[in-house]
Amino acid sequence: MNRAARTDAAVLPRTDRAITAALLLLTTMIAFENMAVATAMPVVAAELGALGSYGLAFSSMMTAMLLGIVLAGPWTDRAGPLPPVFVGQALFAIGAVLCGAAPSFGILLLGRVITGLGAGLVVVVEFVVIARSFAPEQRPRVFSWLSAAWILPSLIGGPIAGWLATEFNWRWVFWVIVLPALVAGGLLLQRRETLRSPGSYSAAQPTASASASASASDARRLADAAVAMGHVGALDDGALDATADAPVADPAVREAADPADDPADERRQHRRTARLGAVVAGAAGVVQLAIHERPPAVSFLTAAAVLALIAVAIAAPKLLPPGTFRSARGLPSVVLTRALLNGSFLGAFAYLPLMLTQEKGLDATSAGLVLAAGSLGWSAGSWAQGRSRRSGIDERTGLVVLGASLLAVGWAAFVGLTLGHAPVWTFAAAVAVGGLGMGLGSTTLSGLVLELSPDHEHGRASAALQLADVLGTVVGIAAATAAFGIWHTTGAHRGFVIVWIGLAALGALGIVSAARCASETSRSGDDVPHRSL
């Protein structure tokens, strides 16, 4: 990109600054909430007497977020971005207020579900807002700012939340995110006319359902979506320039602009996807409730859980590339690997603060600093893979294998550190290794999913990847919750050791599936075969 174009992309019109500020606030709000709640939740669970059900506070939100994601697409296609973004912000704020005021763990879970539903709506609509408000050459710069808006809260959100929970009250951890939601809503309200119509950028305008492909378990996926085309880390300006120089940078936009697509067929497909996603989300919620209750005998709840598992087994494969659950070579293994890495990493992130406070005697602030080491490792891994000279699919598959290996090693180290009564800094080192692996693997997979799918199916392939993110997280945390709930009462460290073993096993499975991300044709040096979804 030449200097003049770079300057034009960097300087936004005054009328777009309110939208940019709103997007930055929304991203910061969601990023801070993710890290802050993970840090403060041990204090919350102890006060509300819910250590055995601790993981539900995370998995319930992710399940609701999945529901918000699949509902946001058709809703925005029909009504535009304003209704879902305002409802999403309102739900996010209401859920946060309810969590902060919760007198019991059940009310807290209700608040988490409402918060997750709102977050799911917001992360989808953000992409439609960007497409309607900014020229293609400006979008990479906006994505780079959103990436920074994720990174800073991920580094300082944990310590800040720990300080609030220790010095004041854990309830403030939820309440402090309400104000940014209200301010962002006011800023978007000022620019409602711009958002109400596609405007001058409608030629490359994605449908919201296609934009849902770029949504995620968290705002970090904003960075992945911005840089996936260039195989670079979220902090690489050169990659952002390359993305801007592409005819259509966003894979969702690329799909929507394909003239071969029938809009009516697309809408039908999006509605079908939304229905299947809602089934998966609802069924996952029932399974988590059954895990939480763990009734001693066959009951209505256990029967419902069995039916829910059957529903997930039927619906989930229809939302993912054929062969995903058997790790077929190429795109299916990319999607499966992403799910395994997410489940392993975020499961550990959920339970590490609890272990540090319960077993090591740390306060919430110190536990937040340990989590920050993992976030720093993730950022370093994303940065490193962006500067790797490995350009072929087979070589970049090696980066994913390395990332999954580091993830498994980090959590396996937790087992020895927990049993050996190791000092706290060793846990920080181990979580940094796991974060480094996650950064290497996750961001590389964002690029591979586009290389291994046809241009006109980039949107669907990215949607499958983001669905895998959420499903993997829900499965990882739900499994950890079940294991911890069963084992934590039988010994001082046993519950945590079982959790670390299970999460390390997920990482090890990720090594196996990562090795199959490169198809046989790409390994032989021929043209890459594109797999249709």
TrEMBL record:
Query: Where's the Major facilitator superfamily (MFS) profile domain?
Result: 19-522
Q: State the organism named in the record.
A: Candidatus Phosphoribacter hodrii
Name of protein: MFS transporter
Q: Which domain of life is it from?
A: Bacteria
* Membrane-spanning intervals of the chain: 55-73, 85-103, 109-130, 142-166, 172-189, 273-291, 297-319, 331-352, 364-386, 398-419, 425-450, 470-489, 495-515
- State the PROSITE patterns in the record: MFS
* Entry GO CC: plasma membrane
Where does this protein chiefly localize? membrane
Pfam families (UniProt xref): MFS_1
Keywords attached to this entry? Membrane, Transmembrane, Transmembrane helix
Question: What InterPro entries does the record point to?
Answer: MFS, MFS_dom, MFS_trans_sf
Compartmental location: Cell membrane
What are the GO MF terms of this UniProt record? transmembrane transporter activity
Membrane topology per the record? Multi-pass membrane protein
